[in-house]
Amino acid sequence: MTEVVAGAAGEVYKDGRSLLTSAGSRIAYVKDLKKNYMKLMQEARKLWELRDGIETEISRHRISQVTREWIVKVEMITREVGELQTKYNDEKKNPWRLLRVWPHSNLSKDMVDKHGQVQILLEEGKLKRGVLVAELPEPVRKIHAPKIEDNSSLHKVVEDVVSFLDDKQIRIIGIWGRVGTGKTTIMQNLNNHKDVAKMFDIVIWAPASKEWSLKKLQCAIMQRLKLSVESTAGIEENAWRISEELKGKKCLILVDEIFDLIDLHEVMGIQDNLESKVVLASRLRDICKDMEADELINVKPLSDHEAFNMFKEKVGRSIHFPGIKPVAELVVRECGGLPLLIDRVARTFRKKERNVSLWRDALNNLRRWENTQGMDEVLEFLRFCYDNLDSDAKKVCFLYGALYPEEYDIYIDYLLECWRAEGFIPNADESILDKNAFRDARDKGHAILDDLINVSLFESSEKRKCVKMNKVLRDMALKISSQIGDSKFLAKPCEGLEEPPSHEEWKKASRISLMDNELCSLPETVDCCDLLTLLLQRNKNLCVIPKFFFKSMSSLRVLDLHGTSIESLPSSLSGLISLKGLYLNSCSNLVELPTQIEELVQLEVLDIRGTKISLVQVRCLFWLKCLRISLSNFGTGSDTQNKLGNVSRFVSLEEFSVVIDSSKQSWDKIVEAIATEVASLEKLTSLQFCFPKVDCLEIFVTKSLAWKKGSCLTFQFAVGDHDSSCFQILKSFDYPSYNRLTLVNSEGVNPVISKVLMETHAFALINHKGASRLSDFGTENMENMLVCLIESCDEIETIINGDVVTKGVLECLEELRINNVLKLESIWEGPVHPGSLTQLTTLTLTKCPELKKIFSKGMVQQLPELQHLRIKECHQIEEIIMQSENIELESSSLPRLKTLVLLDLPKLRSIWVNDSLKWPSLQSIKISMCDRLKRLPFNIVNATKLRFIEGQQTWWEELVWEDDAVKQRLQPVFHPQLAHAFPFSV
Questions:
Q1: Backbone φ, ψ for residue 751 (5° rounding)
Q2: Phi and psi for 752 in degrees, rounded to 5?
Q3: Which of 32, 440, 456, 659 pairs with 283 at a CA distance of 20 to 30 A?
Q4: pTM exceeds 0.90 for this model
């Protein structure tokens, strides 16, 4: 019994203890309710943040099914946590409920349980996010990129592109140039560039290649973004997925090797992502234009120095071995400055080590394009550009360029004339009455040449009037021509030949170029009935053309003898019945032509400038289309009878050029009559002429039918008394495609000048008197003016007087050059009306000793396109941008200014009063002999594109800096001007 009672008592004790423990636990839950709630909510927020991160940072197209299931669990537990949160808030709103222990303990316990579930999901999510982040596309995927030498031309292109990428107004940049110039190397270096990585959230390398398609390009971009590529998805869906992935991100797309037009919006919805930018690389300039590139950069071959340095680095130490370097220089020359070819050729020569014989043998193979590793690859690319030309006319026009030396400046007008003479230019319709067939053919020729430049088979020269052909392309053209049955070239220009080619060589050739040699004689007779072009120019030792030399050249269409020492031409010239172009200019000893010249009934172009031939001798050629002469060709002496009545005979003439020479005194006596004759030429489309007096110009303008046709006539007019100093000035004022008016040593403002000004694109005012402003000529007459030069006009005090105009003026002006204007005090006086000078890109001021004010009030705001500012020897200038004239100058002023040159400005103390301007495009500054300039207008964050500062070392060391950090930032771009060097050119 006792045991039973004891057992029962034990059970009661246990139950009581259990009840006490349970009650204590519930009391503890109640006590920790707030604490448990806070812990739950803290972990829940972490879970939500993790979920949001996965959903926003990682495209839902990349999230796996397992992760989606996890997100569903998170959404479920989020609702459950929300329910607990609601209950807790209800309890807090009703304090009397706090006395209810049991319900509160249950709520607190549920929170503890839910906290555990949240922690489990949180840990799962962290693991999943780690996997997902690893699958995210890295911001930059580094690729192998050949090293680019600092300060090289390729390095400059890279830096220019980086600068453009930093410009908010530029979205698409086009890089173009012939195969092998290093475009891909530039793109690869851009992909890896540290500054580019800072600008963009992601950089995508997406080469297009020859076999590209929209789908392939999309796949390349999607793979880079690590998006799943679904074979069933269409182009539109893929574009949407790419666009969604890039939404809100700053993205750079590098599209290399573009052969055809690509619609980037169709590929990736580029228009929907305003933060994205694109760099294109193509061999074709027009592809970049068609893809709406905001900026174009033409990648040209390396300089000789850069090419040799690259070759030397690739070949290695053997290049320093005796006898190797001279051969190496010849090898590099064969590569034509093309980095791709230099790289491939260097690999071959590296294997030759120090064996000079092997080097010489390999050089000979290279010249023959034989057995050189990598050459076929380059030739395939080059040949593709040729084969891809869309007409035979363009192909033969390209091949014709091989008659000239490599890198030789070929005058465009002359080249087009040769193409027309050869019959390369199609559809030159001469059957239509009053049709200007010659001009139309020239226009078509320009279109063909533009297409050849577009595909980099020709390149523009630094000389505005010229183009040139790279050595490698020329070699390819010669190789192709040798494989064409009816187009054999004998091209040996600039080879130092003293003896003419063999008879067999003459016989085989359809086109011969022996220009710039040392020939003293030519064969007595040659058998070349198929010869179409013969170029013998600048053989200065060639004095005589044999009597029967031209006898078998009945097919000859182009004959160039200019710059030779011949005194006459033989009677066999009459046999050139197909001749269309005859160039005798600068044959200073040439006195007469054979009377049989009248038999050249197909002749269209004749150039006798700088000869002693009288115009009387060629007056029979009334069918000429283009005639170029000098004043002296009108004859000398007092007999004016033979000088007059000749020009008017050329009734078919479309282009007439008369250049000034030493005969201008006798010219003055007959010019009025000659001007009247010129005015009678109804078919005239182009005229270069010298009018010694304004009255003579008025005669022409009043009487000329061609002038009255308006825009049909292009002109280069020189008005006034031109002395030798003027010729030197005008050498730099050569704009071949512009209507040009040069007014020299004249006085006042004549109405006929104002009339001609209305049609003028380039205007030069030299040594003029009787005008204190350019605007005296009437700003309404300058609406078409693109270029203006004012030189040595001692009475000019300002350029434009804004008080006498009511609207914008000089709205099309792109370049303004003012030199040696002694009384010039300012460029603009009075108000600057909106639209004025808004297209001005270049402003050059030189030797204006009284000039104090460059930018008057309101002028800076009108210069959004100004890129180049050059100021030299203006000794009164104290401020480039005067503070008193520009009190409220906006920080974004001069947004396009790239180069600033300041030379010999002894009073200059300020470019701008402080560092408030952004200078967003400024790349280069050159300063010399500006000793009072102690501060530069830069800080840590402005002028972000500045890459070059040149000046005297002493000046740099004496500069005052607001912050040493600014000097440290700019020190790497400073280049001291050599003490013995002549001050840099402006």
A1: -55, -35
A2: -70, -30
A3: 440
A4: no
**DSSP codes, 64-83:** -HHHHHHHHHHHHHHHHHHH
Give CA 495 to chain center in angstroms. 34
E strand spans, 794-911: 800-801, 815-819, 828-829, 842-846, 868-872, 899-903
Are 678 and 687 in contact by the 8 Å Cβ rule? The answer is: yes
DSSP element (H, E) containing 490: strand 489-491
* DSSP structure class, residue 488: -
Do 285 and 298 touch, CB atoms closer than 8 A?
yes
* DSSP per-residue string spanning 329-350: HHHHHHTTT-HHHHHHHHHHHH
Strands ordered across the beta sheet of 202-205: 202-205, 251-258, 277-282, 172-176, 295-298
Q: How many residues does the chain have?
A: 986
Are 279 and 161 contacting, i.e. CB atoms less than 8 angstroms apart? Answer: yes
Burial per residue of 558-587, b for 16 or more beta-carbon CB atoms within 10 angstroms, e otherwise: bbbbbbbebebbbebbbbbebbbbbbbbbb
Dihedral, CA atoms, 104, 106, 107, 109, nearest 10 degrees? 120
Spatial distance between the Cα atoms of 906 and 657, rounded to a whole number of angstroms: 45
CA distances from 943 to 150, 156, 845 (A): 21, 17, 24
Closest CA to 306 of 457, 407, 156, 486: 156
Q: Strands 868-872 and 842-846, how do they pair?
A: parallel
Query: For 315-359, how does the pLDDT look when each residue is reduced to its tens digit (9 = 90+)?
Result: 888 888 888 889 988 988 888 888 888 888 888 888 888 888 888
Select from 303, 299, 328 the least CA-distant residue to 313: 328
How do beta strands 605-607 and 626-630 pair?
Answer: parallel
Q: Which strand (E) or helix (H) includes residue 742? A: strand 740-744
Q: Which residue from 427, 149, 178, 211 is spatially nearest to 281, judged by alpha carbons?
A: 178
Cα(82)–Cα(474) distance, rounded to whole angstroms?
79
Residues 441-468: what's their mean pLDDT? 90
Token reading at 817:
């050059």
Q: What distance in Å separates the CA atoms of residue 583 and residue 415, rounded to the nearest whole number?
A: 12
Q: Which amino acid is at 337?
A: G
| CA–CA dist 739, 759 (Å, integer) | 7
Query: Nearest Cα to 178, choosing from 456, 454, 384?
Result: 456
Cα 420 from Cα 788, distance rounded (Å): 34
Burial 105-118 (b: 16+ CB within 10 A, else e): bebbbbbeebbebb
Beta strand 842-846 with 511-513 is unpaired
* 829-854 pLDDT, tens digit each: 988 899 999 999 999 999 999 999 99
Sequence-distant (≥ 6) Cβ neighbours of residue 521 within 8 angstroms: 500, 542, 544, 546
